[in-house]
Backbone:
């Protein structure tokens, strides 16, 4: 892709006895940078639904995007600004080069995110439960935090192992490196904010375990997900494939 960054699909990841079907579920960063060539590729994939986790303020900052194949665009704002304010007050740590605690602040964000995102993730799983909504792409601004946790939840619901889920999550560090490198070089103290770390996702998973009784209870109880139904829709058995 030329202008759409941090894009990948969940197809092909191993799950117990099989794998996620190709061509149905995609994750990405904000789509406004798409070139005509990028749009042609995604339209060729038949994208029907776009799910946008950005806040209203974030969306006003961009021009929006359109694909000829999209029939449904769903705004499910998880207000990153409010979340950052909730965990770090004024947020001055982002801009203050003397700040040493950016990684810790991001971990705080991931303690807040599972609870704050419940209503929006519940709507996401409702969309996923209807096969007529796919192929579907879900995104936020960078495609790493709100989108990253959503991807982890989807993969868990589909039966992926923890190592597979973490592998997908950590790919954002590589996918965003070139985009953010100029900013990282100018403000090295902001590097933890512009990438992902294993500790971030582990913090969210530990919070879900502590506050909601684990991932399975969180998915079914808080998000209304039906993992068995989702596996029927989005996974395929592969003969001879080991357990995930």
Residues:
């Amino acid at each position: 892709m030329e202008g759409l960054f941090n894009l990948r699909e969940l197809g092909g990841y191993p799950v117990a006895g099989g794998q996620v079907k190709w061509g149905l579920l995609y994750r990405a960063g904000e789509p406004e940078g798409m070139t005509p060539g990028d749009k042609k590729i995604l339209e060729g994939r038949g994208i029907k639904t776009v799910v946008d986790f950005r806040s209203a303020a974030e969306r006003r900052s961009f021009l929006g995007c359109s694909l000829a194949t999209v029939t449904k665009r769903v705004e499910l704002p998880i207000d990153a600004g409010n979340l950052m304010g909730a965990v770090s007050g004024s947020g001055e740590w982002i801009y203050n080069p003397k700040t040493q605690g950016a990684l810790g602040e991001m971990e705080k964000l991931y303690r807040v995110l599972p609870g704050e995102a419940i209503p929006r993730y519940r709507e996401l799983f409702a969309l996923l439960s209807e096969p007529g909504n796919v192929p579907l792409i879900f995104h936020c601004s960078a495609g790493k935090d709100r989108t990253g946790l959503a991807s982890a939840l989807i993969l868990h619901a589909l039966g992926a192992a923890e190592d597979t889920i973490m592998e997908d999550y950590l790919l954002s560090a590589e996918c965003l490196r070139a985009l953010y490198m100029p900013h990282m070089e100018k403000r090295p103290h902001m590097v933890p904010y512009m990438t992902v770390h294993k500790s971030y996702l582990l913090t969210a998973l530990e919070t879900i375990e502590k506050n909601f009784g684990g991932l399975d209870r969180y998915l079914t109880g808080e998000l209304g997900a039906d993992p068995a139904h989702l596996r029927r829709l989005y996974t395929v058995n592969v003969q001879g494939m080991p357990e995930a």
In short: The CA atoms of residues 110 and 203 lie 6 Å apart.
